[in-house]
Amino acid sequence: MTRPILEVCVSSPDNGVLAVELGADRLELCAALQLGGITPHISLLNFLKKTGVPLGVLIRCRPGHFIYTNSEKELMLDQASGFFDAGADFLVVGGLTETKNLDCDFLDRLGKQFDTRKLVFHRAFDQVPNPFEAIDELAARGFLRILTNGQGDRVADPFERLKDLVNKAQSRIGILPAGGIRAYNGSMILGKSGAKELHTSCLMEFEYLEIGFGYVEQLDANALKELRHSVDFPHPRGWKMATSPQETNPIESK
Question: What is the per-residue DSSP string for 135-150?
């Protein structure tokens, strides 16, 4: 059986190196994970090239909703160009209209400027009213993958929705389950959905700085080791999938 791909989202050089040491197959680089992630500094990409794994970069110019102004789109196109020039293997991007549908104008601008086979659509996907039409739109444009939690906040059974999304995507575009994934649910998500890879940040509880501002974002080494083992050697009885905010790690939106 092919080993499942484990993508880990990191916001610091130390966390990136540690994630690879613990079995991450590729990294998504972000800043401010407590805000759902925003575009990191380009130096993080340069530092983590030494890990030797594929490196993706989140292109999200601010926290909050995914409806962007023209100026914000220009900024993100410029950020995307800079990261590709610096050697990023793929970029994680997205945008929505006022009606929460895909911002096809922005997608087309991305397609004119970049190779869409190196573009991943981020968790804005979980807000679209018709995810199956969105899969067709993104697959037709040649996108590489879609990050999704199976629209867990919108449907009663995220397991079933993930399975339906994987079946809809077939070999046209990848479906990458994300959001609150740990050892107790990772192997079951793979087994029930048919997905071949998982995305996680495996963050520890945030440590507030008494001197300074904000929170320290630290990778939970034990959680990542347990997740890696659980998907490589799944328990025959499996684990349940968390389906509510109370059951998931409340600090992880990635």
Answer: HHHHHHTT--EEEE--
Q: Which of 64, 152, 67 is nearest to 101 (CA)?
A: 67
- Note whether 218 and 204 are within 8 A (CB): yes
Residue written as token pair 């629209």: 151
The pTM (predicted TM-score) of the whole model is 0.91
Report the length, in residues, of the chain.
254
Within 8 A by CB and 6+ apart from 24, the residues are 6, 7, 8, 53, 224
Contact 81, 88 (CB under 8 A): no
Sign of CA dihedral 68, 74, 75, 78: positive
Cβ within 8 Å of residue 208, ≥6 positions away: 215
Distance CA 171, CA 192 (A): 17
Residue 128 CA to chain centroid, in angstroms? 16
Confidence of residue 250 (pLDDT cuts 50, 70, 90): very low
Report the C-alpha gap between 181 and 149 in whole angstroms. Answer: 9
Q: Burial of 39 by CB count in 10 Å (0-12 exposed, 13-18 middle, 19+ buried)?
A: buried
d(CA 29, CA 215): 17
pLDDT one-digit tens code per residue, 8-34: 999 999 999 999 999 999 999 999 998
